[in-house]
């Protein structure tokens, strides 16, 4: 069984030496208290919580799962006590306003927390994680009474929150939402309908659960323009224990994340309160969607990291055959797996995705901090600018990193061979849990369409690619004369040119054939992910080379390992991007020409 160990050295490397969060925090209105000592203390205490309390429940929670009896969900043994310890530490309000009981620290610290907790035990982390969306929505769109009523218990963690979007007949296409909201004389609404796939929809961790629900007013326009947003608590404030017409009808029987309660929620004339403007529900719901998708992208690196922490010790201990270049452990019956080239390939791929993805997430976290800074300063222009910058990154982070996290979790299982397929080693659970990450918060296909169709082509006409690729060009031009960094610099210059060429060609082709966006979007997203990760591995290589020459906080072997992993990524992983570029530019005919009735002749 993999035992979680917080990757503090790699986290500190990125926070202190690559991205200089100390200077970044000094630019934020809520960053004054985020001193290096404070950040170090937070990381250290979080590591203890995750390693000693949350992580040990990962496998037992999967085995026990959640239970539903008489409309009440109970979580696995130990979850309630672990959540109480989490709440007692003040962790839920880490990045939320002090006026509601939070610590008021930058959002990026919340993402560091989410990564660490999610790697230790993703199903557990989902319970407090779902509350964050409800808290953010109420904070930005709720009226003063709603904020006063709900934000303090949510921030303290004594209440939890959910986001209720999906219904049996609609997932991504929310224009089909049917849940009804009937106005009442006292200004409240009666909410009636069914929501499915509701993570943390019911549980026994908190005294109340606040549902943020999409529903339609009786005279609402059809489609997405006729959806409003409502606060619907399990128990009305002041009436804890009295039914409000909200009940869990069933628990979904899932492939993975079994300790996370995924519920079918039935609303039977439940009392709700509108949040935001009438028929503006989607705008309110998706205000913080970019930051939410960063949180989901964390799952990609979380599973890559945990799989790596499980497969690396096994590869060092398990013996099989002799290395092709000669005996490595002559006194043993066979050489350790780590001496075999193909096993090393899989290990290095896990390491490259976990550490490269972490760099991508931490970079985006600074954008999120700047976005929140605009909100705190009541500077709408600043908020919109950074939200737009983040909007380009998030489909790449969410789509690419979750796909790659699943891929390397499978690699970890492969390293174990047949033992990887057996529950007692824990690898198959990571694969099962990783699978959902590519589906929720928008499938990879939806992320790809959002990236190419909306962000790149419609909203910016390719400007967002041009703007980000300037970072690659800047790195390339500045480091071409550096003997150690020249290979990376040259490749980044080529990628920047190819990325923009790819964007322009798709744009021109799509003007003639609209299906081009759909057939090219997945390959475009994956290419963009490789291009972005290449930049961040080059950046880490540059810092590591500098620290080897001038000294850094870590031993020289740490920086040498960074350089070796960067070389592996550029030589063995980055070439895959070329195939995605070629596929993205192929005509739509090969994908679209086969008639639906001809996909099979043996069954209907």
Automatic annotation (TrEMBL):
Q: Which cofactor does it need?
A: FAD
Asked if the keyword Signal belongs to this entry, the reply reads no
Tell me which InterPro entries the record gives.
Acyl-CoA_dh-like_C_dom (IPR025878), Acyl-CoA_Oxase/DH_mid-dom (IPR006091), Acyl-CoA_Oxase/DH_mid-dom_sf (IPR046373), AcylCo_DH-like_C (IPR036250), AcylCo_DH/oxidase_C (IPR009075), AcylCoA_DH/ox_N (IPR013786), AcylCoA_DH/ox_N_sf (IPR037069), AcylCoA_DH/oxidase_NM_dom_sf (IPR009100)
What are the protein's UniProt keywords?
A: FAD, Flavoprotein, Oxidoreductase
Q: Domain named Acyl-CoA dehydrogenase/oxidase C-terminal: which ranges? A: 279-450
Q: Which residues form the Acetyl-CoA dehydrogenase-like C-terminal domain?
A: 482-594
Q: What is the protein name stated in its UniProt record?
A: Acyl-CoA dehydrogenase
The record lists the organism as Alloalcanivorax venustensis ISO4
From the broadest rank down, the organism's phylogenetic lineage runs: Bacteria, Pseudomonadati, Pseudomonadota, Gammaproteobacteria, Oceanospirillales
């Amino acid at each position: 069984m993999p035992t979680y160990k917080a990757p503090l050295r790699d986290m500190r490397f990125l926070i202190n030496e690559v991205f200089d969060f100390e200077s970044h925090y000094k630019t934020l209105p809520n960053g004054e208290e985020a001193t290096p000592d404070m950040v170090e203390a937070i990381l250290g205490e979080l590591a203890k919580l995750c390693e000693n309390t949350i992580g040990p429940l990962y496998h037992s929670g999967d085995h026990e799962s959640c239970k539903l009896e008489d409309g009440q969900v109970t979580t696995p043994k130990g979850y309630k006590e672990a959540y109480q310890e989490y709440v007692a530490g003040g962790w839920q309000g880490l990045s939320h306003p002090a006026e509601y009981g939070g610590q008021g620290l930058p959002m990026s610290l919340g993402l560091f927390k989410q990564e660490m907790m999610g790697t230790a035990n993703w199903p557990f982390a989902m319970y407090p994680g779902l509350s964050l969306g409800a808290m953010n929505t109420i904070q930005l769109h709720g009226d003063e009474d709603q904020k006063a009523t709900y934000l303090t218990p949510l921030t303290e963690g004594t209440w939890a929150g959910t986001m209720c979007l999906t219904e049996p007949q609609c997932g991504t296409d929310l224009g089909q939402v049917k849940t009804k909201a009937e106005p009442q004389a006292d200004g409240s609404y009666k909410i009636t309908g069914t929501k499915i796939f509701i993570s943390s929809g019911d549980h026994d961790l908190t005294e109340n659960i606040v549902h943020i629900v999409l529903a339609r007013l009786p005279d609402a326009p059809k489609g997405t323009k006729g959806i409003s947003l409502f606060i619907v608590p399990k128990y009305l404030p002041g009436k804890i224990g009295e039914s409000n017409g909200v009940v869990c009808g069933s628990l979904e029987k899932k492939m993975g994340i079994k300790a996370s309660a995924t519920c079918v929620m039935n609303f039977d004339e439940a009392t709700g309160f509108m949040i935001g403007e009438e028929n503006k529900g989607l705008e309110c719901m998706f205000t913080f969607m970019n930051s939410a998708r960063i949180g989901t992208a964390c799952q990609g690196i979380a599973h890559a990291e945990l799989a790596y922490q499980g497969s690396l010790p096994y590869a060092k201990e398990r013996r099989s055959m002799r290395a092709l270049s000669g005996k490595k452990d002559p006194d043993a019956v066979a050489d350790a797996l780590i001496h075999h080239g193909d096993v090393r390939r899989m290990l290095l791929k896990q390491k490259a995705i976990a550490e490269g993805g972490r760099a991508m997430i931490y970079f985006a976290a600074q954008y999120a901090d700047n976005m929140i800074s605009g909100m705190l300063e009541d500077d709408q222009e600043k908020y919109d600018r950074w939200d737009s910058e983040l909007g380009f990154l998030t489909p790449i982070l969410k789509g690419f990193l979750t796909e790659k996290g699943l891929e390397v979790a499978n690699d970890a299982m492969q390293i174990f061979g047949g033992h990887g397929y057996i529950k007692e080693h824990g690898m198959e659970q990571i694969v099962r849990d990783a699978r959902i990450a590519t589906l929720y918060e928008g499938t990879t296909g939806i992320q790809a369409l959002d990236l190419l169709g909306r962000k790149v082509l419609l909203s910016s006409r390719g400007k967002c690619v041009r703007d980000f690729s300037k970072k690659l060009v800047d790195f390339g031009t500045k480091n071409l004369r550096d003997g150690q960094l020249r290979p990376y610099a040259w490749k980044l210059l080529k990628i920047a040119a190819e990325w923009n060429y790819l964007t322009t060609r798709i744009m021109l082709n799509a003007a003639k054939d609209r299906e081009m966006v759909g057939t090219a979007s997945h390959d475009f997203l994956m290419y963009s992910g490789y291009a972005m990760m290449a930049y961040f591995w080059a950046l880490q290589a540059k810092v590591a080379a500098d620290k080897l020459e001038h000294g850094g906080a870590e031993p020289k072997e740490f920086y040498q390992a960074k350089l070796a992993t960067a070389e592996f990524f550029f030589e063995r992983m980055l070439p895959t991007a070329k195939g995605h570029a070629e596929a993205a530019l192929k005509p739509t005919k090969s994908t679209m020409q086969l008639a639906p009735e001809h996909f099979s002749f043996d069954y209907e």
